[in-house]
């Protein structure tokens, strides 16, 4: 497959794109973002952020989120610094009203042998590493002031296929829990209180409907628990935001009645058992995940997220879906971003 010479990736909700970049920049200040796009004129954009303790993915197609199964096996991947991307978008959004614009990602130029004024880009070109230029454009879609376009260009390194990041999979997760916005803020207060002590948080999800967060650090041990509703999550239809938004209202009834017919691509939580003993609760504890309190706080502090659904893989990795409200799009009521953290261990 050959890379298309000119394509545009339209993100329906620029405010969501801005919030996502802000969140990733707060978490992974020293890592890079990767734009991934296919070469069959199918418009898609994947942003990948990495640090020593975590990995995060955001996947858009016309403003929708796709599942890992829908990603092409050979995407093109461009490496761009996190702060460069976030600052470029911030500078543009300060000039224009984000409610009246759309964001376009334009890839056009191969700079492998190009001479530029950028020392870093010239060095990359001399080392025969393919560099390309990405143009981020904000266009006014109408309004009293007429049309207006602002453009910023950045350089990035085209990564080889073996360095293309892999999207997280939902296998190994047998139940998902809905975490309310109020519960997110409660957890944020605990993490914020202990983050300066370099503490860790251990997150566990029991089959009887209890979500537990234990904060550990030097001379610190704080445990908090909440009752949660189990929910279903479509593993192959995540771009259908209407189904996802409906699952929130259905989650409580589904946790009380698990005899409904479910398709094979759904993960459904087990029935919460209010009469379970402490021993039964311990036996029903799902695999736990341990991560830095400051990293978990960065996600919890994302005030745009109205709903959070999380699950823990058997390997001990935490998979979190944060649903961001998109008020400007009639086609996609919710746009979801999702993140995956590798466990740090209990030592």
TrEMBL record:
Residues 241-265 have a biased composition (Low complexity). Residues 241-285 are annotated as: Disordered. It comes from the Eukaryota. One of its GO terms (cellular component) is checkpoint clamp complex. InterPro entries: HUS1/Mec3. GO terms for biological process: DNA damage checkpoint signaling. This is Checkpoint protein.
